[in-house]
Amino acid sequence: MAAGRGRLDAFAKIRDVNRREFLGSAVAGLASAETPPPGNIILVHEHVLVDFTSGKSPYDPDEAFAIAKPHLEEAKKYGLRRFQDCAPAYLGRNPKLLRRLSDAVGVDIWTNTGWYAARNHQYLPGEAKTESPAQIAKRWVDEWRKGVDGMKPRFIKIGVNNGPLPELDKKIVRAAALCSKETGLTIQSHTGNGLAAVEQLEIITSENVDASKFVWVHAYREKDHAIHEKVARAGAWVQFDGVSESSLQWHAECVRFMESRKLLGRTMISQDAGYYKPGQPKGGAFRPYTTMQKQLLPMLAPLWGLQLLVMNPIAAYGKS
Ligand SMILES: [Zn+2]
User: Fold this and answer.
1) pLDDT per residue over 145-194, tens digit each?
2) From 3.40.50.1440, 3.40.720.10, 3.30.465.10, 3.20.20.140, which CATH number describes the 37-317 domain?
3) What pLDDT score was predicted for residue 39?
4) Domain layout of the chain by residue ranges
5) I want to staple 222 with a disulfide (CB 3.0 to 4.6 A). Which of 27, 92, 145, 194 is the partner?
6) Distance of CA 256 from the midpoint of ligand 1 (Å)
7) Which one, of 251, 273, 278, lies nearest residue 84 by Cα?
8) For residues 306 and 83, what is the distance between their CA atoms, to the nearest angstrom?
9) Phi/psi at 312 (nearest 5 deg)?
């Protein structure tokens, strides 16, 4: 009896220590610059390279690689496990470069399929105008099936202008819904304003795609929390990316608002940081991938980081 009891006590002790150490290291790591967190953070919206010249400025991939690599290594020190690169086709998507960086740094890097209608359609290929949503979706499904330069897209990235949405934007959203239905991939949409988010959600759910397959990108640009709440309550994801040194107070407020409405489970944060820009000397200014970990997380309750950067991204996009 005594021996059995002793074993149970010992087991309970080990379990407690494990739990304390796991949560302890995760919490301390997420909240403190001195203690790196465990390797489990997912950055859902960042960029290695964005080509606003859409192929008109040839660049040296070796230079882009050398410039991005130390930033990814620094993020790895702060617990990065997975990096979701959000440059769509015609805007600098470069899976070869991503794969090279992934191998060199030892973090998982994801690329995407989809087209970007934002910035007044200038980055859309001609087929966007002539083809149906189903035809466009088929192109993206093919990329998912066959891979792009040896890398399988793991999410759909589109972009739309401000609402009320132009017809062409609606077509791209419908194509994304059809592609999601076929592949199960989650849709990240660069979104102009809150109205555009609501309109997209209507299109996507009208195609019988679950609201949880839609991520409202750049939700921090919408100042009306009522729309954040509405979209989250409908079951979609509200993504406050764009965390930077000058935005910390607003991003913290957005997250605290969602938590106050018990909607932290539909919220994500990221930085939209980087990136090498072809056409600029040395790729221009590069914003680091660690501002959020160093400066925003310490402003929030420690366990929120675990929810926002580990649990929610897995729930939204799946495991690696
Ligand atoms: Zn972005």
Assistant:
1) 999 999 999 999 999 999 999 999 999 999 999 999 999 999 999 998 99
2) 3.20.20.140
3) 52
4) 1-35, 37-317
5) 194
6) 23
7) 273
8) 16
9) -65, -45
| Ligand 1 centre distance from Cα of residue 274 (Å) | 9
Q: Give the residue carrying structure tokens 């230079």.
A: 63
pTM here is 0.89
Distance 27 CA to ligand 1 centre (A): 28
Q: Can you read off the two tokens belonging to residue 27?
A: 């919490």
Distance CA 81, CA 79 (A): 6
How many A from CA of 271 to the centre of ligand 1? 8
Gap from CA of 188 to ligand 1 centroid (Å): 10
Query: Looking at this protein, which amino acid is placed at residue 89?
Result: A
Residue 290, Cβ neighbours under 10 Å: how many?
20
CA of 272 to the centre of ligand 1 (A): 5
Weakly modelled stretches of the chain, pLDDT under 70:
1-39
Report pLDDT for 320. Answer: 81
* Cα–ligand 1 centroid distance for 87 (angstroms): 7
- CA nearest 37: which of 309, 269, 320, 244? 309
Task: Say how many Å lie between the CA of residue 6 and the centre of ligand 1.
Answer: 56
